[in-house]
Design goal:
Elements: H1 8-29, H2 32-38, H3 40-69, H4 72-104, H5 112-121, H6 123-137, H7 143-148, H8 153-157, H9 163-178, H10 182-207, H11 210-226, H12 230-239, H13 241-266, H14 271-288, H15 291-306, H16 310-323, H17 326-342, H18 349-365, H19 372-383, H20 392-423
Main location: membrane
Keywords: Glycoprotein, Membrane, Symport, Transmembrane, Transmembrane helix, Transport
Organism: Fodinibius salicampi
Length: about 425
């Protein structure tokens, strides 16, 4: 059994805590500029390393996975299960968010003076998000499907935001390989298989830097929020405390109710063991606020620790990182109702059902949109006729909540991979770090 401080998840937790302490000390001691200039860049380097290998990992592992299936019918069946479960869990997430925000009524606790001050402070951010949202709303309903098919693969591979296009090309290449004689396709399969093994080893090397990268990222988040005035950040958190609590309660309930039910329906896995196996990936997602950047680690932990076969993980997880946004969808539901409450608007049952539909579609359609969370929230607000200026009320704590909802997004991706693997008979034995 490993000593506790040698286990990766504990090292990441220590990095998070020390980064938090450093960030608070920097705000109080007045060395925020030093932290931003000389500490935060190491966190950025760590994220860039993870993003660097995301595209080749998805490409290689998915091609190997498709060719190992050697059956297009099985591939389409797995795809149907994956998208279906993702959509169902997203709708449950939105419903839970609406229930929590209607029970707590967090908008009623926001002082009018704070409301006016925040709306004027973030006016520039609102205008930019509103413009991007208008561009999204003006697109054709089938634009999402058009965007999946790239006209230039190398252009797609140069941007992690186009991961669905990389997935499409990888599946297409895999199908093409299994359609030709085996002796001709074998060299390609061997190449991508070897490339996949090399990338997994690179992931192991990058994860040696995880505690230091997480420390730098956390310290950077705190100084970005507080600057040299810690009381400003604390006042902001206090004013938005009920809204923050509503989002966090919703996220926790979604994990405890929906994902535990998913395990009971589709496997014998315990939620506690699942979290123990996935801790490094979830903590990394929390610190980076990026499902795509965390994808290499999510895939490694799912395969090596959860027992998900590579055929499933290489297919389900890349898709989940781009279209499965349970945490983000729940946040959008809570945020939309909170803004309406703070502005004194009563939402009808029809408007709240519109939130369910719009946020579900937004979670899928947001894949290639920069700053997707806030931009798609604008789309939701427009759909229920709530002034988009109200987004200013939540921007102050959005960075913190973004970390939390990303962790839930990654949890959902891994949970669905377990469910799909079990239904396909491709779920092996779990391996926990302390065994």
């Amino acid at each position: 059994m490993k000593k506790w401080y040698k286990q990766l998840h504990w090292q990441i937790i220590i990095g998070l805590v020390l980064g938090l302490i450093w960030g608070l000390a920097a705000s109080v001691g007045g060395f925020s500029v030093f932290t931003a200039d000389y500490i935060k860049p190491f966190g950025t380097i760590f994220i860039n390393l993870l993003k660097l290998i995301a595209v080749p990992l998805v490409l290689a592992s998915l091609i190997v996975g498709v060719t190992s299936l050697n059956d297009t019918a099985k591939l389409s069946r797995m795809g149907g299960k994956t998208v279906g479960i993702y959509i169902v869990t997203t709708m449950f997430a939105i419903t839970i968010g609406l229930t929590v925000v209607n029970v707590l009524q967090p908008g009623d606790f926001l002082p009018a003076e704070t409301q006016q001050q925040m709306m004027s402070s973030y006016q520039d951010n609102i205008e930019g998000s509103a413009q991007s949202a208008r561009e999204v709303m003006e697109r054709s309903p089938l634009t999402f499907f058009v965007d999946i098919v790239p006209e230039n693969f190398f252009a797609s591979a140069s941007d992690n935001g186009n991961m669905l296009q990389v997935v499409f090309v990888a599946i297409l290449l895999g199908i093409g390989i299994i359609q030709i004689p085996k002796e001709k396709g074998r060299p390609l399969v061997s190449f991508f298989d070897s490339l996949n093994d090399v990338i997994i080893k690179i992931v192991d090397l990058i994860m040696l830097l995880a505690p230091y990268g997480v420390f730098a990222l956390m310290a950077g988040v705190i100084v970005d929020l507080a600057g040299d005035d810690l009381t400003q950040a604390l006042d902001l958190l206090g004013a938005l405390g009920w809204y923050t609590a509503a989002v966090l309660i919703g996220l926790i309930l979604h994990v405890l109710i929906i994902y535990s039910s998913l395990f009971k329906l589709f496997s014998n896995m315990k939620l506690r063991d699942f979290f123990k196996a996935m801790q490094p990936a979830i903590l990394l997602g929390f610190s980076t606020s990026s499902s795509s950047a965390t994808l290499p680690v999510t895939m490694e932990r799912a395969e090596n620790n959860l027992g998900v076969d590579e055929e499933v993980s290489s297919f389900v997880l890349p898709i989940g990182a781009t279209i499965n946004m349970d945490g983000t969808s729940l946040y959008q539901a809570v945020a939309a109702v909170f803004i309406a409450q703070a502005l004194g608007l009563d939402l009808s049952v029809a408007q709240q059902l519109t939130i369910v539909l719009t946020a579900t579609l937004a979670s899928v359609g947001a894949a290639g949109v920069p700053g997707a969370g806030i931009i798609m929230l604008v789309v939701v607000l427009e759909a229920i006729q709530v002034p988009v200026e109200g987004i200013a009320l939540i921007l102050g704590v959005d960075r913190i909540l973004d970390m939390c909802r990303t962790a839930v997004n990654i949890t959902g991706d891994a949970a669905v991979s377990v469910a799909v693997a079990h239904t396909e008979g491709l779920l092996g034995e779990m391996h926990l770090d302390d065994e």
